[in-house]
Please model this.
Amino acid sequence: MCTWLGAMTPTPRRSARGPCSGWRPGSHSVGAWVQVSRLGNPLFNEVLIPIARKDEWNASAPSSDQKFADRVSHPELAKLLPALYPGVFPNLAAYTKPRADLAAILVTGIPKGVVPNFQNNTGTVQADLLRLNLAVPPAKNLNNIGLIAGDAAGFPNGRRLEDDVVTIELRAIAGATIPLVDKTFTPDKATGALSDFATQTNGAFLPNFPYLGTPNCGFGTQPKNHNTCEGGTGAGTVPGGSAATGAGGTSGGRDTELLVGGAVAAAGAVAAAGAYQHNRTTTDGVTPDHNTE
Model:
């Protein structure tokens, strides 16, 4: 019996809008329903798919993702990290093979034998799907870095609310998962220190559906103001000083540029901080805390 599955969520809308008839003002949607967005693995669209092809990707079915395979096998972010931060990712910079690790994680599922006692492979068709092995029980000691930290119940085996998917994917793209398929590769020391700097400042999880607590106010500019809407109407900030931006939509555009830029900046900032922390302490012997503003 099959114990694993792959899932994605499409977003459709009407193909056209027309004026309302009679006395009613405004317009209404008409025409056939067409797919304008989809979501499988987090950040697949935002980080891997180039801006010029986002509409094409959003409108297509996962079964046709073979035509985007090069964006997974040769991710742009993996090239940008060594270029923007010379000397921090020397092993990643020297690695030129196609990223079979990312292909397994994101578009086919991890086959048997790659991770001991685990697989979530759904076949040979390359498709952006969030895969889940139903035979894996919930973790007794949850690790929010998921499978790459030894917690097989976490992302990319499904996606739990607690999973830090941005940090996981940053580390994977930076080379943390290459040794799963290529034992000759050694991840750079900075890879294990990569993080998105985000902290959980939302309301506590609920015991029942919808499980997520009350979200923060979108107008607060500091975490301490997240429930009061004080401090203006600009984008919120996260530890580390980078702007908290939304992601998604059908055309990508500036949001995607900001998200990719933010991911690169966060990756480089943490890597640089890790290297700095390794080589230097403050004058009083206390290691600097790089997680505060």
User: Anything to note?
Assistant: The first strand starts at residue 4 and ends at 7. The two ends are 51 Å apart (CA to CA). Strands lie at 4-7, 9-19, 27-39, 130-133. The helical segments are 44-48, 54-59, 69-73, 76-84, 90-94, 100-108, 165-176, 253-279.
